């Protein structure tokens, strides 16, 4: 039998709990990603503020709460205040469905106004939250492997995955874009916070990376930026994302190769930018870097970087930067001098030095193409 509370959405359920208890309430899934929060912000501490802003508790808070035994608690657990950590006292209510923990409700209660008896009266609402989280979790569990198989190189595995996703009615209709994500620190990406993404977006780990399938009707670059930004709390060195061109579900594996190529360019952008940034690159904007869909940057550089380019790269970095900027700007001396902030004569002197050191003739189209490709690929390695 369905209770009235079971028909409510998770946000409505959290708001109902906050209203009944008078306590600001947040709901996190078992990965401690923020699912929903009530609007009671008259009482707030740094833990709640950070969780709402970052859509996830930070690592130190997670460790502190784990030490109180929230994973083993059989019922509501009182977590004391810690002024040094900017933490007020609160209740932790484990959200369980058929003995499995799917998340946690947090009720901020510094004045000890919420009594255990009042928490016991919330059982129907907590059960409704648990049922909703369990349903979503089981759907994700059934489809995660299928997304990985859909992106594989095995035609039989792809066909089976497409059949499974069609049966679950979760595969986006029509064209889609594939997103590949990875952190700049080289670690595994870890769980992506799907709660900040549209429900039509499918998320799955593929090796150490994360894959997203985004329907064509949704702005994939915006989705990628949102997902990457949410991962920065776990990977402060930076997060990169590559977005494929539009593909059909049957061509998702091709989209994955395109997204992986764009991801390599995005990782290079993160490495060259400020620490803690997120970068998104799209397949359509890669130009010659689409070659990255065929081979790793290092393998391509080994072919494209000849002895002339190696001499230049081993010398004055200012000459390398000048040559790269000049070629990026299609050989425009005026724009190159402005970009570098130097006088035109200084630029001409540097370009002569580039010719002398490398042996490339910058007036020859083939030499210019060869040097531009070599410097571009060398920059990615």
Q: Topology, pairings included?
A:
Layout: H1 10-21, E1 25-29, E2 34-37, H2 46-54, H3 59-67, E3 77-79, E4 90-97, E5 100-108, H4 116-120, H5 123-150, H6 155-168, E6 176-183, E7 202-206, E8 209-215, H7 220-231, E9 239-243, H8 252-272, E10 278-282, H9 297-304, H10 307-313, H11 317-328, H12 333-340, H13 344-358, H14 365-380
Parallel strand pairs: 9-10
Antiparallel strand pairs: 1-2, 1-5, 3-4, 4-5, 6-8, 6-9, 7-8
Helix pairs in contact: 1-5, 5-6, 9-14, 11-13, 11-14, 12-13
Describe this structure in words.
- With 381 residues, this protein is an alpha+beta fold.
- The protein has three domains: 130 residues, GAF domain (Beta-Lactamase); 122 residues, Alpha-Beta Plaits; 84 residues, PucR C-terminal helix-turn-helix domain (Arc Repressor Mutant, subunit A, Orthogonal Bundle).
- It is 46% helix and 15% strand.
- A hairpin with a 4-residue loop joins β1 and β2.
- It is elongated and about 85 Å long.
Output the keywords.
single chain; alpha+beta; Beta-Lactamase; Alpha-Beta Plaits; Arc Repressor Mutant, subunit A; five-stranded antiparallel beta sheet; five-stranded mixed beta sheet; 14 helices; about 45% helix; elongated; disordered N terminus
- What are the low-pLDDT stretches, counting only 5+ consecutive residues below 50? 1-7
CATH class of the largest domain: Alpha Beta
Provide the number of structural domains: 3
Rg for CA atoms: 26 Å
What are the secondary-structure elements, in order, as H or E? HEEHHEEEHHHEEEHEHEHHHHHH
Here the CATH topology of the largest domain equals Beta-Lactamase
**What is the residue-mean pLDDT, rounded to a whole number?**
87
CATH homologous superfamily designation of the largest domain = GAF domain
- Helix-strand category: alpha+beta
Measured as a percent range, the helix fraction is: 40-55%
* Principal-axes shape call: elongated
Q: Please report the total strand number as a whole number.
A: 10
CATH architecture of the largest domain: 2-Layer Sandwich
The percent range for strand residues is 15-25%
How far do the termini sit from each other? 60 Å
Number of DSSP helices? 14
- Taking strands numbered 1, 2, ... along the chain, how are they ordered across the largest sheet? 2-1-5-4-3
Biggest beta sheet attributes: 5 strands, antiparallel
């Amino acid at each position: 039998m369905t209770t009235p509370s079971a028909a409510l959405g998770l946000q409505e359920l959290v708001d109902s709990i906050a209203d009944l208890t008078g306590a600001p309430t947040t709901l996190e899934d078992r990965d401690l990603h923020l699912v929903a929060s009530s609007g009671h912000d008259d009482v707030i501490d740094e833990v709640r503020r950070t969780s709402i802003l970052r859509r996830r508790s930070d690592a130190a808070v997670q460790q502190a709460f784990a030490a109180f035994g929230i994973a083993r608690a059989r019922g509501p657990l009182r977590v004391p205040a810690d002024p040094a950590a900017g933490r007020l006292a609160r209740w932790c209510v484990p959200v369980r469905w058929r003995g499995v923990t799917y998340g946690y409700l947090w009720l901020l209660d510094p004045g000890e106004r919420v009594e255990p008896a009042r928490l016991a009266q919330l059982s129907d609402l907590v059960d409704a939250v648990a049922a909703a989280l369990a349903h979503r979790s089981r759907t994700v569990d059934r489809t995660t492997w299928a997304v990985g198989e859909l992106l594989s190189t095995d035609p039989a595995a792809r066909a089976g995955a497409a059949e499974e996703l069609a049966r679950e009615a979760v595969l986006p209709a029509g064209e889609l874009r594939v997103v590949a994500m990875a952190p700049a620190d080289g670690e595994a990406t870890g769980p992506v916070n799907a709660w900040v993404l549209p429900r039509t977006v499918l998320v799955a780990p593929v090796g150490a990376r994360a894959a997203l399938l985004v329907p064509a009707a949704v702005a994939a670059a915006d989705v990628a930026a949102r997902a990457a930004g949410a991962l920065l709390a776990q990977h402060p060195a930076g997060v990169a994302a590559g977005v494929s061109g539009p593909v059909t579900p049957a061509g998702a594996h091709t989209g994955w190769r395109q997204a992986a190529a764009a991801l390599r360019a995005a990782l290079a952008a993160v490495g060259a930018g400020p620490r803690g940034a997120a970068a998104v690159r799209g397949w359509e904007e890669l130009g010659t870097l689409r070659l990255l869909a065929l081979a790793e940057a290092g393998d391509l550089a080994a072919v494209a970087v000849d002895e002339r380019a190696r001499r230049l790269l081993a010398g004055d970095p200012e000459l390398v930067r000048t040559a790269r900027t000049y070629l990026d700007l299609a050989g425009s001396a005026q724009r190159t001098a402005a970009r570098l902030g130097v006088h035109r004569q200084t630029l001409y002197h540097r370009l002569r030095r580039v010719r002398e050191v490398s042996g490339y003739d910058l007036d020859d189209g083939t030499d210019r193409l060869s040097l531009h490709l070599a410097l571009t690929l060398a920059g990615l390695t």
